[in-house]
């Protein structure tokens, strides 16, 4: 009956996870934000503020002008205080619009026997993601970035790691996360993952071409717009483009474009409602005033050439009006 169906659906993402993960690694579905306590933590400001009260020390690694973490920076940070290298010290990095040197970072972490976790939410469905080949100890993915439902994700964890659960009770998910499984979300996540993987190259090619058209259109309409990240298309994720507009407030541009039915963002969903320049953009060495005028345009499988044309028509007048309002 229903119990059997739920169990079968819960196993489906693990079977289809073999598309990304060879058998010696195991995928486990669980809501994206609820990671086991001892899984290597995500390196995201505001989420890593709490480990200090557990005796952990958080150290932020520098990034280059493209937002990339370099392996030498990681090695230097670890070697700076070799006496403080407990086995549960965790290093994490998050992929956003740039392709990070994950394998190289994982190799450095392995030199010091430190588990490395990566947030691959942005990468799956756009890049060739292979957990085993990455050398990572743990990796997270999420359904909502690949056409699946909100609130479902997976933690991919090396078999040699045994996370300590945050929630206790029924013992579900191999006693890592107790609670009733959301079978419909899990099944949908599995289907979305299989589809995104099977059509990844086609998606990257078509959406990457639209992104390049968008970049050209914005630069033509606003010649002094600053493209964020690697100027080489091969070094970027295909589904988004990030700009800074001198003399503008990002929030003003957001409202002006919204009036034209254009949806974009001034930063990631993680920092929604924070009226400050992105700490990620500032870390790249961007001037504070310029960082206040950033916009990120994200594309998906429903994006069309008409969408790009709408942005091209609206962005110039929007920037002009935002500049007339000035920086507050």
TrEMBL record:
Pfam families in the record: Aminotran_5
Catalyses which reaction(s): (sulfur carrier)-H + L-cysteine = (sulfur carrier)-SH + L-alanine
Basic residues biased stretches: 35-47
Cofactor or coenzyme needed: pyridoxal 5'-phosphate
Membrane spanning stretches: none
Region called Disordered, residue ranges: 1-53, 77-101
One MF term in the entry's GO annotations: cysteine desulfurase activity
Keywords annotated in UniProt: Iron, Iron-sulfur, Metal-binding, Pyridoxal phosphate, Transferase
Composition-biased stretches (Basic and acidic residues): 1-11
Gene3D superfamilies in the record: Aspartate Aminotransferase, domain 1, Type I PLP-dependent aspartate aminotransferase-like (Major domain)
InterPro entries the UniProt entry points to: Aminotrans_V_dom, Cysteine_dSase, PyrdxlP-dep_Trfase, PyrdxlP-dep_Trfase_major, PyrdxlP-dep_Trfase_small
Residue intervals of the Aminotransferase class V domain: 53-311
Family, similarity comment: Belongs to the class-V pyridoxal-phosphate-dependent aminotransferase family. NifS/IscS subfamily.
Protein name: Cysteine desulfurase
Organism field: Streptomyces himastatinicus ATCC 53653
């Amino acid at each position: 009956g229903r119990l059997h169906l739920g169990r079968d659906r819960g196993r489906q993402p693990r079977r289809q996870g073999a598309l990304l993960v060879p058998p010696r690694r195991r995928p486990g579905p669980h809501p994206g934000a609820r990671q086991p306590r001892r899984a290597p933590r995500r390196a995201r400001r505001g989420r890593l503020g709490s480990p200090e009260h557990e005796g952990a020390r958080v150290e932020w690694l520098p990034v280059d002008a493209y937002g990339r973490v370099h392996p030498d920076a990681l090695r230097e940070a670890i070697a700076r205080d070799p006496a403080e290298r407990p086995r549960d010290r965790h290093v994490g990095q998050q992929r956003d619009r740039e392709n990070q040197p994950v394998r190289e970072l994982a190799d450095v972490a392995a030199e010091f026997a430190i588990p490395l976790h990566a947030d691959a939410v942005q990468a799956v469905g756009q890049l060739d993601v292979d957990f085993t080949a990455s050398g990572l100890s743990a990796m997270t993915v999420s359904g909502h970035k690949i056409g699946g439902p909100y609130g479902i994700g997976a933690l991919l964890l090396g078999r040699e790691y045994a996370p300590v659960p945050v929630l206790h009770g029924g013992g579900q998910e191999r006693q890592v996360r107790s609670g009733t499984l959301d079978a419909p979300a899990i099944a949908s996540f599995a289907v979305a993952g299989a589809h995104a993987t099977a059509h990844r190259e086609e998606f990257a090619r078509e959406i990457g071409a639209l992104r390049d058209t968008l970049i050209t259109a914005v630069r033509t309409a606003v010649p002094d717009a600053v493209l964020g990240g690697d100027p080489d298309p091969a070094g970027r994720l295909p589904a988004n483009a990030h700009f800074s507009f001198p003399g503008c407030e990002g929030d003003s541009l957001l409202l002006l474009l919204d009036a034209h039915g254009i949806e974009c963002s001034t930063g990631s969903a993680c920092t929604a409602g924070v009226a400050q320049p992105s700490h990620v953009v500032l870390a790249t060495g961007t001037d504070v005033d310029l960082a206040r005028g950033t916009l990120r345009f994200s594309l998906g499988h429903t994006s069309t050439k008409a969408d790009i044309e709408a942005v091209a028509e609206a962005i110039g007048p929007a920037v002009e009006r935002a500049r007339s309002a000035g920086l507050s």
